[in-house]
């Protein structure tokens, strides 16, 4: 594993991300307001593609409790993974809800159930939260995890999101800005930029930060990109870390491009991120669970294969998993 370029990390951390009470992306990005949203709805007639339910594998307790000498990734669905290595079990953006919404009777519904429920999980030690959108931060899931595991979990959250957790009685938090890090026994967690936005209602747009996480556990480096459009921050991540062993990268929720490109990558952009961060192995996420945008639910994996071929990369370099599938990596 390459050494972290701490000097470059410190220089990047000095770049301002907060301006006039709100956070902003490292690159200047167009802001699509209500007029653009209404144009999108007018062009589509307010209709989304039909939902699809994908095959679902169900990991057994024996699988989840087996010794983990090599990194083991289980895709729960959307941006939720169970990542296991050595004595650490880690979740990314856990959302087990039936809808990505503040209420469970309206909003984008889940078509493929989560591969695991809270009661199925092994002991969880760390949870990474990328930002506060409802398909990445779900109140009921967070409270269920807290009821089961309590202070055993350390929650890693973007700057400004900690208040949301503290209001719910959760205080085992690491709250970081871009390019900051927090060590833990056997490793370190770094919060890194993404090109996106935040908000859970009409009045809190970009009041909290968003981003991805690079987590080092012993000699393995995991990168969880969260939710993002394509920008210069990914080559910065590659320069700071000199490569990652495993990258969890979004490939869905990208159409129409005129509206979604600033905040959601398509598969071709995801391949560029794979290359920019110098990932040895990437795994696709953020597809096949909710209908959020205009592309068919089963299109992202097909488009990813085409993008990999155009980039001269093998399908095995950037894997798509079935919901509930587990991939063990040989490092």
Secondary structure: number of strands: 16
Tell me the name of the CATH homologous superfamily: Ribonuclease Z/Hydroxyacylglutathione hydrolase-like
Sheet with most strands: strand arrangement:
8-7-6-5-4-3-16
Give the termini distance in whole angstroms: 10 Å
Shape: globular
Mean of residue pLDDT? 95
Number of helices: 9
Task: Provide the low-confidence segments as ranges.
Answer: none
Order of helices and strands: HEEHHEEEEHEHEEEEEHEHHEHEE
The helix-and-strand class reads alpha/beta
CATH fold node name: Metallo-beta-lactamase, Chain A
Briefly, what CATH class?
A: Alpha Beta
Going by CATH, the architecture would be: 4-Layer Sandwich
Helix proportion range: 10-25%
Percentage beta strand: 15-25%
Main beta sheet, described?
7 strands, mixed
Radius of gyration: 18 Å
Number of individual domains: 1
Descriptive overview:
The model has no long low-confidence stretch (mean pLDDT 95). The chain has a seven-stranded mixed sheet, with no helix packed on it. The protein is globular. The chain has a single domain, classed as Metallo-beta-lactamase, Chain A, CATH 3.60.15. With 331 residues, it is α/β, with parallel strands linked by helices. The protein has helices at 6-13, 34-44, 61-65, 139-149, 162-166, 233-241, 257-260, 267-276, 299-310; strands at residues 18-19, 22-23, 72-77, 80-85, 88-92, 126-128, 154-158, 173-176, 181-184, 187-192, 212-217, 220-224, 244-250, 279-285, 318-319, 326-328. The termini are close together.
